[in-house]
Write a structure and sequence with these properties.
The protein is built from ten helices and 14 strands. By secondary structure, it is of the alpha/beta class. It has two domains: about 110 residues, Alpha-Beta Plaits, CATH 3.30.70; about 160 residues, Rossmann fold, CATH 3.40.50.150. A seven-stranded mixed sheet has the order 10-9-8-11-12-14-13, with helices on both faces. The protein has a four-stranded antiparallel sheet with strand order 2-3-1-4. Strand 11, helix 9 and strand 12 form a beta-alpha-beta unit. Helix 6 packs parallel to helix 7 and helix 9 runs parallel beside helix 10. The chain starts with a strand and ends with a strand. The structure holds S-adenosylmethionine. S-adenosylmethionine binds next to helix 3, helix 6, helix 7 and strand 9.
């Protein structure tokens, strides 16, 4: 199966109008922001998460659309040019359109070129499924098996690796744990490898739930995890020893008081997805809620906080 990829480099101000239109004529649209825009836009952390860090446009944005091999690509390109020509887009003359054909198999193999086993912490090692046979691990290594073709949460983002370090240092087999915003399920898999068996993983996004289930199967922990869609801790009624959430600062902020309520005394709240600028506000709120700050890790502008219910 072949795909036509059409990549449109343009101003950020054109994003909404152009992507709205492209969504109506294609099989999928993805937006790549330059790093400068990403730094300003905290809200698209999830987008940032899904991108290959080496693949950001140097400026502005790149909107990428895909058409399957049966599409009339010249007709589609004409439709795009007509739309650009007849709508009030910024810097219209600078909009750059590039097309290429992608072989689905090549695409799969592209991933394999860039994704290799790597150590995230003292014991956790992320191993792609195709390297399991060859990987020479140490006796005490804990392998998190993931297939990056299945979207985000591969452990190479600083927020995930900092959370995994905190999971490794904190989780004990008797702990009851909830992982809010589980994504690929990576943090729950880490907790399971530390021996925890009373696990719950939630996400607001159905696709994440599907991906997490596949990864739980791959890591033989599916029977020990209750996996559900959910919005933060809003519908939770149980008590936990550890709450983990790697989302966004303002979303973490929304769940601090619920996290305090849902934790047992001495329980841990491991929170990440927080940019450095938002750290003090989150720490203040946690302290006001009754938490003691046990540890703060920082990496590449991101912060992870381990707070304990006093
Ligand atoms: C950055 S990913 C983290 C994935 C994984 N836990 C990790 O650390 O690699 C954030 C996840 O939070 C989910 N999310 C965002 N808002 C949420 C909400 N209100 N309730 C539950 N999950 C949410 C997103 O769908 C996404 O899967």
């Amino acid at each position: 199966m072949k795909w036509h990829e059409v990549s449109i480099h343009t101003k950020e101000s054109n994003e909404e109008m152009l992507s709205g239109f492209l969504n109506t004529i294609s099989k999928g649209v993805s937006i790549e922001h330059s790093l400068d825009i990403l730094k300003k836009k905290i809200d698209n952390f999830d987008d940032k998460y899904r991108l290959d860090p080496t693949d950001y446009p140097e400026s502005d944005i790149r909107i990428i659309v895909y058409f399957d091999e049966t599409a009339d690509i010249s007709g589609k390109l004409q439709e795009i040019r007509d739309f650009i020509g007849s709508n009030p887009l910024d810097a219209r003359d600078d909009i750059n359109i590039i097309t290429r054909e992608i072989d689905e198999e090549d695409w799969e193999n592209e991933w394999k070129k860039y994704f290799h086993s790597f150590r995230v912490s003292e014991e956790f090692v992320i191993v792609p499924s195709w390297e399991l046979e060859d990987y020479e691990f140490r006796e005490d290594d804990k392998l998190i098996k993931l297939d990056p073709g299945m979207a985000f949460g591969t452990g190479d983002h600083p927020t995930t690796s900092m959370c995994l370090k905190m999971v490794e240092a904190t989780v004990k087999p008797h702990h009851k744990i909830i992982d809010v915003g589980t994504g690929s399920g990576i943090l729950t898999i880490g907790a399971h490898l530390m021996g925890a068996r009373d696990l719950k993983a939630t996400d607001i996004d159905e696709l994440s739930i599907k991906v997490a289930r596949e990864n739980f199967e791959l890591n033989a922990c599916v029977n020990d995890v209750v996996l559900e869609t959910g919005d933060l801790l809003k519908s939770e009624s149980g008590q936990y020893d550890i709450i983990i959430a790697n989302i966004l600062a303002h979303i973490i902020d929304e769940m601090i008081d619920d996290a305090y309520t849902r934790l047992n005394t001495d329980g841990s709240f491991i929170a990440s997805g927080i940019i450095t600028e938002a750290r003090d506000g989150i720490v203040d709120h946690m302290t006001r809620a009754g938490f003691e700050i046990k540890e703060i890790l920082e990496d590449s502008g991101w912060v992870s906080i381990h707070a304990v219910k006093g």
